[in-house]
């Protein structure tokens, strides 16, 4: 709880600093503030508590997920220092929006009440609409903002209607009372309808089949740092919220609901990985890769309560690798109009360390052993096999083999093409390189000893 | 006086809310004018609000009505952002027709 208050005051403080013309101090101060918030959050590690009539709950799993979100925001704010160099007079807006986004993510995982869930979701979404459309003079950014806004509000409408129906069935917004009511009383039909509507809205938010079509366009049009935020922080937060809701609602759903989820996972994996094969824009490629990773993370929802540590591990591996990959992409594409794969030609010659970093990040996403992504997939697949979801696991394995092709494609472009533009000059940028290397080191560490994360639960 | 809700029946409220929700959803899918699409989103959210208020009276529980206030605030914030994006689009292309936004393709 103190974390939430600290984050809210931090976001307001940033806006106040702008008034006093202290723009230079904003990013360093935010980073310090985020570390303080992380410390406050970890202090709650062993406590089980609830605040404001069970609106916010604190327990081990919320603390862990929130720590992940704070670490991701830390990296994203650090990247913003260089990314917004040309519009540095607006740095306070961008930074405080990112902190508000983090507050939304916090509420989405710490809720004990559906009201808080909806508010958190909306705080997260609204800040993302602003960030997606934040490059005002660029028509592509406008289009991305508009598409994201329309699709996102459409999804919010579904979620809200679902919540209203669930409220009608159980007479409460409180999760504990909903569990109590749904397991003990006979539920009217609209309880299932309500959760299905929420499912539709959540699938929109995490960009899973059949509601994935907005993701590539929005990822492509948004400013690159916003794409980074969407594909790491926002996606992970939405999946975590979905997981938490599914643990509550699944026991009360009809038995063939599991088949529906399994089908959605298979379809998401196939669509995401097949469509990524023919992309030549790195942002669209990452968008489809994000869709396929949403499919992998949805497997945890299928598996229920036992999969929580594995889901958390997978999320950490995916999001940290995403941060590393995107900071190298930022480095390469910082003054290019479009982010095409061919821009990476001969990058290894110029910046071998960063090229290796990007390769490791992409290989981690593809699931090559030793890197964290491999163990994330291994744990989820083993657990799924134990529970007997054979077809899902077989599809997941096949599609993750397919995915290696498009990740390797980028790596090959970096390492084999020698005839890079001789006059390509990569501007020196300490922040991007530092974040990329730091993120990949975290990825390697949790890859070498996965027990660091798994044993936390 | 007998409770109005009991005279009419909760079912009728649910049907009305679902009808409004469908009008909103189809409005977003079929209309191409951004302002009309915003209005459709508002109809969807208001359908949910109507349902919340109806259930709140039905269960004699104030939580639902409090939630409606939150929803209204959220909806207002959402539309403010939407209109801001729309103004940016209008400045760039001089039109608010959604079909003219076709720059992003893969």
TrEMBL record, chain A:
<comment type="similarity">
    <text>Belongs to the complex I subunit 2 family.</text>
</comment>
<feature type="domain" description="NADH:quinone oxidoreductase/Mrp antiporter transmembrane">
    <location>
        <begin position="113"/>
        <end position="403"/>
    </location>
</feature>
<keyword id="KW-1278">Translocase</keyword>
<dbReference type="InterPro" id="IPR010096">
    <property type="entry name" value="NADH-Q_OxRdtase_suN/2"/>
</dbReference>
<feature type="transmembrane region" description="Helical">
    <location>
        <begin position="353"/>
        <end position="376"/>
    </location>
</feature>
<dbReference type="InterPro" id="IPR001750">
    <property type="entry name" value="ND/Mrp_TM"/>
</dbReference>
<feature type="transmembrane region" description="Helical">
    <location>
        <begin position="63"/>
        <end position="84"/>
    </location>
</feature>
<keyword id="KW-1003">Cell membrane</keyword>
<keyword id="KW-0874">Quinone</keyword>
<feature type="transmembrane region" description="Helical">
    <location>
        <begin position="429"/>
        <end position="454"/>
    </location>
</feature>
<feature type="transmembrane region" description="Helical">
    <location>
        <begin position="310"/>
        <end position="332"/>
    </location>
</feature>
<feature type="transmembrane region" description="Helical">
    <location>
        <begin position="285"/>
        <end position="304"/>
    </location>
</feature>
<keyword id="KW-0520">NAD</keyword>
<dbReference type="Pfam" id="PF00361">
    <property type="entry name" value="Proton_antipo_M"/>
</dbReference>
<comment type="subunit">
    <text>NDH-1 is composed of 14 different subunits. Subunits NuoA, H, J, K, L, M, N constitute the membrane sector of the complex.</text>
</comment>
<dbReference type="GO" id="GO:0050136">
    <property type="term" value="F:NADH dehydrogenase (quinone) (non-electrogenic) activity"/>
</dbReference>
<feature type="transmembrane region" description="Helical">
    <location>
        <begin position="26"/>
        <end position="43"/>
    </location>
</feature>
<keyword id="KW-1133">Transmembrane helix</keyword>
<keyword id="KW-0812">Transmembrane</keyword>
<feature type="transmembrane region" description="Helical">
    <location>
        <begin position="99"/>
        <end position="132"/>
    </location>
</feature>
<keyword id="KW-0813">Transport</keyword>
<comment type="function">
    <text>NDH-1 shuttles electrons from NADH, via FMN and iron-sulfur (Fe-S) centers, to quinones in the respiratory chain. The immediate electron acceptor for the enzyme in this species is believed to be a menaquinone. Couples the redox reaction to proton translocation (for every two electrons transferred, four hydrogen ions are translocated across the cytoplasmic membrane), and thus conserves the redox energy in a proton gradient.</text>
</comment>
From TrEMBL, chain B:
<dbReference type="Pfam" id="PF00420">
    <property type="entry name" value="Oxidored_q2"/>
</dbReference>
<feature type="transmembrane region" description="Helical">
    <location>
        <begin position="67"/>
        <end position="90"/>
    </location>
</feature>
<dbReference type="GO" id="GO:0030964">
    <property type="term" value="C:NADH dehydrogenase complex"/>
</dbReference>
<dbReference type="InterPro" id="IPR001133">
    <property type="entry name" value="NADH_UbQ_OxRdtase_chain4L/K"/>
</dbReference>
<keyword id="KW-1133">Transmembrane helix</keyword>
<keyword id="KW-0520">NAD</keyword>
<keyword id="KW-0812">Transmembrane</keyword>
<keyword id="KW-0874">Quinone</keyword>
<comment type="function">
    <text>NDH-1 shuttles electrons from NADH, via FMN and iron-sulfur (Fe-S) centers, to quinones in the respiratory chain. The immediate electron acceptor for the enzyme in this species is believed to be ubiquinone. Couples the redox reaction to proton translocation (for every two electrons transferred, four hydrogen ions are translocated across the cytoplasmic membrane), and thus conserves the redox energy in a proton gradient.</text>
</comment>
<comment type="function">
    <text>NDH-1 shuttles electrons from NADH, via FMN and iron-sulfur (Fe-S) centers, to quinones in the respiratory chain. The immediate electron acceptor for the enzyme in this species is believed to be a menaquinone. Couples the redox reaction to proton translocation (for every two electrons transferred, four hydrogen ions are translocated across the cytoplasmic membrane), and thus conserves the redox energy in a proton gradient.</text>
</comment>
<keyword id="KW-0472">Membrane</keyword>
<feature type="transmembrane region" description="Helical">
    <location>
        <begin position="35"/>
        <end position="55"/>
    </location>
</feature>
<keyword id="KW-1278">Translocase</keyword>
<comment type="similarity">
    <text>Belongs to the complex I subunit 4L family.</text>
</comment>
<dbReference type="GO" id="GO:0048038">
    <property type="term" value="F:quinone binding"/>
</dbReference>
<dbReference type="GO" id="GO:0042773">
    <property type="term" value="P:ATP synthesis coupled electron transport"/>
</dbReference>
<comment type="subunit">
    <text>NDH-1 is composed of 14 different subunits. Subunits NuoA, H, J, K, L, M, N constitute the membrane sector of the complex.</text>
</comment>
<dbReference type="InterPro" id="IPR039428">
    <property type="entry name" value="NUOK/Mnh_C1-like"/>
</dbReference>
<keyword id="KW-0813">Transport</keyword>
<protein>
    <recommendedName>
        <fullName>NADH-quinone oxidoreductase subunit K</fullName>
        <ecNumber>7.1.1.-</ecNumber>
    </recommendedName>
</protein>
<dbReference type="GO" id="GO:0005886">
    <property type="term" value="C:plasma membrane"/>
</dbReference>
<feature type="transmembrane region" description="Helical">
    <location>
        <begin position="12"/>
        <end position="30"/>
    </location>
</feature>
């Amino acid at each position: 709880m103190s974390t939430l208050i600290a984050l809210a005051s931090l976001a307001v403080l940033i806006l106040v600093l702008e008034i006093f013309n202290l723009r230079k101090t904003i990013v360093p101060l935010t980073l310090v503030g985020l570390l303080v918030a992380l410390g406050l959050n970890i202090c709650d590690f062993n406590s089980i508590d609830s605040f404001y009539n069970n609106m916010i709950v604190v327990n081990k799993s919320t603390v862990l997920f929130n720590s992940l979100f704070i670490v991701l925001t830390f990296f994203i704010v650090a990247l913003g220092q260089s990314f917004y160099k040309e519009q540095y007079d607006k740095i306070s807006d961008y930074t405080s929006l990112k902190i508000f986004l983090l507050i939304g993510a916090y509420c989405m995982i710490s809720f004990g009440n559906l009201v808080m869930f909806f508010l958190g979701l909306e705080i997260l979404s609204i800040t993302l609409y602003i960030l997606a459309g934040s490059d005002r003079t660029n028509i592509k950014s406008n289009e991305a903002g508009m598409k994201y806004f329309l699709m996102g509000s459409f999804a919010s409408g579904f979620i809200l209607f679902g919540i209203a129906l669930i409220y009608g069935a159980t007479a409460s917004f409180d999760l504990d009372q909903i569990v109590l009511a749904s397991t003990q009383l006979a539920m009217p039909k609209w309880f299932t309808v309500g959760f299905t509507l929420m499912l539709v809205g959540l699938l929109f938010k995490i960009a899973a089949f059949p509601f994935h079509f907005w993701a590539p366009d929005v990822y492509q049009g948004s400013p690159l740092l916003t794409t980074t935020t969407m594909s790491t922080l926002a996606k992970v937060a939405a999946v975590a919220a979905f997981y938490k809701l599914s643990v509550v609602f699944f026991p009360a759903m009809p038995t063939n609901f599991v088949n529906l989820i399994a089908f959605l996972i298979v379809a998401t994996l196939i669509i995401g990985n097949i469509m990524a094969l023919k992309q030549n824009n790195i942002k669209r490629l990452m968008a489809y890769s994000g869709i396929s990773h949403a499919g992998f993370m949805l497997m945890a929802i299928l598996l229920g309560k036992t999969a929580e540590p594995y889901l958390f591990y997978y999320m950490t591996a995916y999001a940290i690798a995403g941060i590393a990959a995107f900071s190298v992409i930022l480095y390469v594409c910082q003054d290019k109009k479009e982010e095409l794969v061919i821009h990476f030609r001969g990058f290894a010659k110029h910046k071998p360390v960063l090229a290796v970093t990007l390769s490791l990040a992409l290989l981690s996403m593809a699931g090559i052993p030793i890197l964290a992504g491999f163990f994330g997939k291994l744990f989820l697949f083993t657990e799924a096999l134990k529970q007997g979801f054979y077809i899902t696991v077989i599809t997941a394995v096949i599609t993750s083999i397919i995915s290696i092709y498009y990740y390797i494609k980028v790596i090959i472009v970096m390492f084999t093409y020698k005839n890079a533009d001789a006059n390509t000059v990569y501007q020196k940028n300490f922040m991007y390189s530092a974040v990329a290397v730091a993120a990949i080191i975290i990825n390697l560490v949790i890859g070498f000893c996965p027990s660091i994360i798994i044993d936390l639960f | 006086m007998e409770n109005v809700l009991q005279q009419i029946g909760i079912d009728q409220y649910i049907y009305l809310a679902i009808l409004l929700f469908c009008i909103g959803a189809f409005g977003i899918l079929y209309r191409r004018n951004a302002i009309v699409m915003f209005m459709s989103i508002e109809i969807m959210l208001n359908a949910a609000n109507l349902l919340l208020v109806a259930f709140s009276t039905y269960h004699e529980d104030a939580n639902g009505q409090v939630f409606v206030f939150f929803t209204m605030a959220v909806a207002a914030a959402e539309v403010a952002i939407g209109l801001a994006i729309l103004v940016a689009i209008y400045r760039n292309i001089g039109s608010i027709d959604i079909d003219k936004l076709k720059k992003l393709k893969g």
